[in-house]
């Protein structure tokens, strides 16, 4: 008798209290992965979608072919921007807990991705960020007061109250508005890159999503257009091992997320997202590939989400402190500090001075943004219509008159 088929119901790889299994991660040694020519076709670099590009070893010493020529000043600037972002995140998180803003999302442990990649873009390149790219906004010149004002929705809110907190934009810096709908920025970035190529410009676009968003249809649409039309676009997946409360190992049976790009015909690369130097070099290689007219790439940045998904989340309900604790020893600021100490005589006193400077900047920004007047209630009707409809105009008058 033929057995009936049955639906496979996957079991979670670990429940709270279980020891998590990260064996699905293929962690290459620093310097082990070969560096390709930027014009190499996707089929010849498929190994990069399975191996991990690392530059810094466990002692902070750079290894292998991916080591770039960087001045110490560039690395110190990367450390400063990461520390500044970390300080701002911590302060905004505390202010949300104090009831001064309604919502916030930290990028703790993921700063190297924005900073490392941001080091090699041109000002004319177009960014389509996600909600943990605040460091990229800061690096491209966005005042942290303006970022704070957007979270408070006061008179300096760049979005005029039309976006939820942390959904920033900066038109002058070519930073597209963050979308709360997952993966929509991927087709936007591909379309912008296609338009840039049609106009004969030497500009590249780049977009960021999380690991969970690779299950969205927009992810696959974007890869299809990127493969067929070969526009100059860099698509980034920030794989922090958690799609809110779902582990990366429970999201897909694909061995890696970069593998999905290879299936579509787009080069895929996996990089150590906690290694700011490796992140920078991988993006530089992808940009060379795009500017040479060879099309786009996908970069999977492997990292770990050290905090809650948002201030509306409590990660302790689905993972234990014992799981998170070891990752604090591998986060990007610790990694870069080791390198600076090993290679450039970076001292504890110098770092303490840098921390004081970052803290002073954040304190000054907080004072500045708290001093700005909130929007009047009447402003909710602004920027909607050239002329308000009769019913809204009547409501506006009632609001204005109290």
Short précis:
It contains twelve helices and eight strands. It has 402 residues and is α/β, with parallel strands linked by helices.
Structural notes for this entry:
The chain is 37% helix and 8% strand. Helix 1 crosses helix 2, helix 1 (72-97) crosses helix 11 (348-370) and helix 2 (111-118) crosses helix 8. The model has no long low-confidence stretch (mean pLDDT 93). It is an alpha/beta fold. The N and C termini lie far apart (78 Å). Strands 1-7-8-4-3-2 form a 6-stranded parallel sheet, with helices on both faces. Strands 5-6 form a two-stranded antiparallel ribbon.
Low-confidence stretches: none
Could you tell me the mean pLDDT?
A: 93
Share of β-strand residues: 5-15%
User: How many distinct beta strands?
Assistant: 8
Structural class by SSE content: alpha/beta
Run of helices and strands: EHHEHHHEHEEEHEHEHHHH
Helix count?
12
Shape: globular
Strand order of the biggest β-sheet: 1-7-8-4-3-2
Share of helix, binned: 25-40%
Largest sheet: 6 strands, parallel
Distance N to C terminus: 78 Å
Rg (C-alpha, Å): 22 Å
Which key phrases capture this entry?
single chain; 402 residues; alpha/beta; six-stranded parallel sheet; two-stranded antiparallel ribbon; 12 helices
């Amino acid at each position: 008798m033929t057995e009936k088929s049955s639906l496979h119901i996957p079991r979670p790889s670990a429940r709270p209290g279980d020891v998590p299994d990260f064996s699905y991660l293929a962690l290459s040694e620093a310097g082990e992965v070969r560096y390709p020519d930027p014009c190499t076709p996707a089929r010849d670099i498929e190994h990069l979608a399975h191996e991990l590009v690392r530059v810094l070893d466990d002692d902070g010493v750079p290894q292998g072919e991916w080591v770039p020529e960087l001045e110490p000043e560039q690395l110190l600037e990367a450390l400063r921007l990461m520390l500044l972002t970390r300080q701002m995140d911590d302060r905004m998180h505390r202010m949300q807990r104090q009831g001064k803003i309604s919502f916030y999302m930290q990028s703790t442990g993921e700063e190297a991705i924005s900073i490392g990649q941001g080091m090699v873009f041109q000002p004319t390149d177009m960014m389509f960020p996600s909600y943990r790219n605040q460091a990229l906004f800061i690096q491209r010149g966005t005042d942290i007061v303006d970022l704070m004002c957007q979270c408070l929705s006061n008179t300096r809110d760049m979005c005029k109250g039309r976006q939820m907190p942390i959904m920033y934009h900066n038109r002058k810096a070519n930073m597209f508005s963050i979308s709360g709908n997952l993966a929509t920025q991927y087709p936007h970035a591909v379309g912008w890159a296609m338009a840039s190529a049609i106009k004969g410009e030497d500009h590249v676009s780049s977009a960021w999503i999380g690991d969970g968003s690779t299950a969205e249809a927009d992810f696959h649409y974007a890869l299809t257009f990127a493969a067929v039309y070969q526009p100059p676009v860099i698509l980034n997946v920030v794989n922090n091992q958690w799609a809110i409360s779902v582990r990366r190992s429970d999201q897909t049976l694909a061995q890696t997320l970069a593998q999905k790009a290879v299936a579509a015909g787009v080069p895929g690369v996996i990089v150590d997202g906690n290694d700011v130097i490796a992140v920078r070099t991988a993006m530089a290689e992808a940009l060379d590939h795009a500017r040479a007219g060879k099309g786009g790439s996908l970069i999977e940045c492997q990292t770990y989400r050290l905090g809650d998904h948002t201030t509306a989340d409590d990660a302790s309900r689905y993972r234990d402190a014992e799981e998170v604790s070891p990752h604090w020893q591998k986060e990007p600021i610790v990694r870069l500090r080791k390198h600076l100490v090993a290679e450039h005589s970076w001292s504890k006193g110098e770092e303490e001075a840098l921390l004081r400077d970052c803290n002073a900047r954040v304190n000054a920004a907080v004072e500045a943004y708290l001093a700005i007047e909130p929007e009047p209630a009447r402003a909710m009707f602004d920027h909607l219509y050239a002329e308000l409809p009769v019913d809204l105009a009547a409501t506006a008058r009632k609001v204005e008159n109290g």
